[in-house]
Design brief:
- This protein is an alpha+beta fold and 85 residues long.
- It has one domain.
- The strands form two sheets. The protein has a two-stranded antiparallel sheet with strand order 1-2.
- The protein starts with a strand and ends with a helix.
- The structure holds zinc ion.
- The site of zinc ion has 8 residues, from loops.
């Protein structure tokens, strides 16, 4: 059976369902979803788009954290410079 990778819309856990499945239950949070017969690939596209949004948001967070760390490194560098002088 061909499988489609989906993310649970409720808890974002990975769901693996058959492409021809009409319903599935999330094994993590127990949410059940009905899938229109034959539309699983369309659902998968929507799930991938959501996952891409999540990834973009996470990358934004990471890049903000990197900026903050750069600032800390710069401050430490300046502090070290004061002590070297
Ligand atoms: Zn779930």
């Amino acid at each position: 059976m061909e499988l489609v990778d989906l993310k649970c819309p409720n808890c974002s856990a990975p769901l693996r369902i058959g492409r021809s499945a009409t319903s599935t239950v999330c094994e993590y949070c127990g949410s059940s979803f009905s899938l229109q017969a034959g539309a699983a690939s369309g659902v998968a596209v929507a799930a991938v788009a959501r996952a891409a949004d999540d990834t973009r948001r996470q990358l934004d967070g990471v890049s903000r954290a990197v900026d903050a760390l750069r600032q800390v490194a710069k401050d430490l560098e300046e502090t070290a410079g004061v002590f070297r002088r």
